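Recall from the previous chapter that SMILES is a line notation for molecules. Here it describes flavin-adenine dinucleotide.
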Amino acid sequence: MEKYDLIIIGAGAAGLYSAACAPPDLRVLVLEKSPSPGRKLLLTGGGRCNLAHSGEPGELIDHYGWNGRFLRKAFHRFGIEQLTVLMARCGVKLYEDDSGRFYPVGDRAADVLSALLSLAGSSGVVIRCSMKVTGISEESEGFSVVTQDGAFSAGSVLITTGGRSYTITGSSGDGYDFAARLGHNIVPQRPALVPIHLQNHPFRGLPGIAFKGSICVPVPAGGTQCCRGEFLVTDKGLSGPAMLNISRHVLQGTVLKLELLGRDDFAVFQESVTAPGMKPELKTVLSRFLPGRLAASVLAMADCPPGLRAAETSRSRLEALHSLLTGMELTALGTGGYNEAFVTAGGIDLRQVNPATMESLLVPGVYFAGEVLDIDGDCGGYNLLAAFATASAAVSSIAKP
Ligand SMILES: Cc1cc2nc3c(=O)[nH]c(=O)nc-3n(C[C@H](O)[C@H](O)[C@H](O)COP(=O)(O)OP(=O)(O)OC[C@H]3O[C@@H](n4cnc5c(N)ncnc54)[C@H](O)[C@@H]3O)c2cc1C
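With both inputs in hand, we obtain:
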C-alpha cells in the first residue's frame, strides 16, 4: 500500500489550498473523484472568483450566522495578507472592489486554480483525479483511505469533500458519511445562499426585475435578522444577494417582511404625493423610487387604478401603500434545491472539531476544512475565505505535529 503523511480527500477550494500550503517535507496525496480538480472553484463569482472579503476577524465572523464564532481563531491567523502573499508567489495579484470583495487581477478563476495547482506541484504534492474515496478506516498507525482503485495509507487525513450543492462539480455529501462512520455527529443539511420560493408570489409576472430593499425574518433565538441589498424577481419568488444571505433562516412557512422603501424614502414619497397641485400620475412618482413595472404592480396591490393622479390618492390608498412599501409580508413556500444553492448549511458538528487546528476531537489525525464543516457564509467571498482559512489552520497544525 502506498504510504503518505497526509491524504487530502477532495481537490476543491479547501483541498487545493491545503495542498498549496503543504511543506515540501510532508508526503501529501490529494484524491479527487472528478476527472479534473477545482471544478466548483472555476464557477465562483461567475468565473471571476470572488475569493475573499475584507474585514477584521470580529466583523468577518458576523457573516456566517450563529456558527461564525468557530472561525474566530482561524481568522486571527489567516486573512487577506496571507492569501495575497501565497497568490503572489505564482504571479496572481488580487484587487479589492468598492464593496470589499477580493478578486484576482484579470478576473479569472482559472488563474487562482492554476496558482494553487502550481504551488502544490512545487511542494511535491501528488494529485490523483477520477479517484473516488469510498471509505476511511482507522489502522494501528494512521488510516487506510479506500478508493474504487485500491487503498492508500496515511498518518493523517484531511476531509475537504465540500457540501451537497452543485453536485455536478463533485460535491455530493460523501464527507458526511466518512465522518459519521468515524463516530461524528452530522448536523442535518439544507441548501443555503439559495433563492426563496413564495406563496402567493406578489411579483409573479416580473421575473428578471432587480431592485434594492431590505428583508427581515424572525429567528429561533428571538428577534429578527435583516439583510439590506439587491433583490432579483424570479419565476417562483425572490433571489439576489440580500435574499440569498437571509435564506439560511428561511423554512417553509417563514413569514418575511420586505421593505421596498425605507422610512425616509417613504416620507419623501408621501410628501411628493400630498404636495399641493401634484399633477403627475402616482405611478410616475413611485417610479422615482422603484423600477416602473414593480411600482405598477405595488400600486395595483393597493387598489390604485392605472392613471391615478398623485394628488387624487385617498388616505386609505396611501395607508395601503405604506404597509406594502415599508413591510410587505411574504410567506415562504420553501427554498430552491441543491442545484440552485451556492452552498450547503449543516455538516460536521463544530463541537467535535478543534477550532484552532480543525482536528477532530473524537479521532486524532482526522481533520476537516471547507464547506464539509457546519459553516455557511454570506455572498461576497466569505465562503472561499472560510475554506482557505480552515484549510490553512489544518495544514499548519498537521505540518507541526
Ligand atoms: C456557482 C457557485 C459560485 C460560487 N461563487 C463563490 C464566490 O464567488 N465566492 C465565494 O466565497 N464562494 C463562492 N461559492 C461557494 C464556494 O465555491 C464553496 O463554498 C467552496 O468551493 C467550498 O470549497 P470546498 O473545498 O469545501 O468544497 P468544493 O469546492 O465543493 O470541493 C470539494 C471537492 O471534493 C471532491 N469530492 C467529493 N467527494 C469526494 C470523494 N468521495 N472522493 C474524492 N473526492 C471527492 C469533489 O469532487 C470536489 O472537487 C460559489 C459556489 C457556487 C456553486
